Backbone:
């Protein structure tokens, strides 16, 4: 079976992890945490990094650090992981959903404005499967309505967006470097992994301080075990940060390999009728975190049947997200009950992603594309 993903861990990871074990710095203090925070923040073009235990915790920490009054609203895509909605709900807010752009599968930015109310406090763009959200118009809206932007860049390490906002000069900006706060996951299937792990980035020192405090139970520096706010234990360990730092040394090669996979699949699959492949908009450098394909209904297949047929040929796949507005847990809470988001509904049923891991060889990629052809042609 060709796996959807496998992490690549090398000698550098072993060296750094060994250093942690030999020195005894295995918990949430130690040199690797700060170095990883600083290097990741710098790579993304942000000033402060706050390493946390996973991407879900990063989103919760980011939302918490805004310190919003209960009942506020955050606009986000319906087509995303549940972590985005949970981060808002656990912090006393209400997610407000928009549908996906049919080309990029990211939130359709043209639908945001009509969702803004006097309770809206933030927008949470999610760079889906490695392709950036169209950030210029989103930032325009956020500025105009004084909304915070919490970027979810969990799937878009190293992806870039061509911004034209600064006095007509175009600039490539890294995903995770454009929001007031941004969030990453370092789960094993991500471009950089620490096993489990995440990070919040920001340029704002006050938000950084709040996020650091939230991550560590809101201990007060001047008076230990005395708390004036609610926090969480979302600390990352030095051992995990050691892995992250080791991988950062190879980030350019990692991004290059992902982009090679994306282009190689595109070349081989682009002429199959009824199959939509990932795009790369002119303003985007995407990283093909996972190579998604969406079947047209004219193929007579949905993603479940397609996945079963590929599995029979030794190709592992994963289904696309199911939109937040279709989640029973939220319906039980009275949320999103009568909502329809046709693009998200269609791609959830017709989409899956193919093996896209860093260990994927050219011959495996050929096998996958051959299997796709046999099933669809
Ligand atoms: C877009 C997005 N945000 C957040 C997360 C949550 O990250 P984690 O699994 O590390 O909690 C994920 C997980 O893969 C994700 O894909």
Residues:
């Amino acid at each position: 079976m060709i796996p959807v993903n496998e992490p690549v861990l090398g000698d550098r990871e072993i060296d750094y992890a060994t250093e942690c074990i030999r020195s005894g710095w295995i918990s949430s203090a130690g040199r690797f945490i700060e170095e990883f925070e600083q290097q990741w923040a710098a790579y993304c073009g942000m000033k402060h990094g706050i390493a946390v235990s996973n991407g879900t915790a990063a989103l919760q920490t980011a939302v918490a650090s805004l310190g919003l009054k209960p009942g506020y609203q955050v606009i986000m895509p319906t087509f995303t992981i549940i972590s985005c909605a949970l981060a808002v709900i656990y912090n006393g807010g209400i997610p407000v959903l928009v549908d996906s752009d049919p080309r990029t599968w990211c939130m359709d930015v043209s639908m945001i404005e009509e969702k803004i109310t006097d309770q809206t406090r933030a927008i949470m763009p999610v760079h889906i499967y490695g392709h950036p959200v169209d950030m210029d118009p989103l930032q325009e809206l956020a500025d105009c309505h004084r909304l915070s932007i919490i970027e979810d860049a969990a799937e878009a390490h190293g992806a870039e967006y061509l911004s034209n906002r600064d006095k007509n000069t175009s600039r490539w900006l890294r995903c995770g470097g454009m929001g007031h706060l941004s969030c990453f996951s370092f789960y094993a299937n991500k471009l950089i992994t620490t096993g489990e792990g995440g990070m919040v980035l920001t340029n704002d020192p006050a938000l950084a301080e709040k996020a650091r405090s939230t991550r560590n139970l809101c201990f007060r520096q001047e008076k230990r075990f005395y708390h004036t706010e609610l926090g969480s234990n979302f600390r990352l360990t030095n051992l995990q940060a050691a892995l992250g730092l080791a991988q950062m040394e190879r980030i350019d090669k990692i991004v290059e390999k992902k982009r090679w996979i994306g282009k190689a699949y595109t070349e081989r699959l682009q002429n199959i009728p009824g199959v939509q492949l990932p795009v790369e908009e002119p303003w985007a450098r995407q990283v093909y975190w996972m190579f998604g394909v969406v079947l047209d209904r004219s193929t007579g297949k949905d993603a479940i049947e397609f996945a079963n047929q590929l599995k029979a040929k030794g190709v592992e796949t994963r289904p696309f997200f199911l939109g937040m507005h279709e989640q029973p847990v939220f319906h039980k809470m009275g949320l999103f009950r009568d909502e329809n988001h046709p693009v998200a509904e269609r791609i959830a049923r017709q989409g899956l992603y193919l093996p896209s891991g860093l260990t994927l060889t050219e011959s495996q990629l050929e096998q996958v594309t051959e299997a796709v052809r046999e099933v669809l042609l």
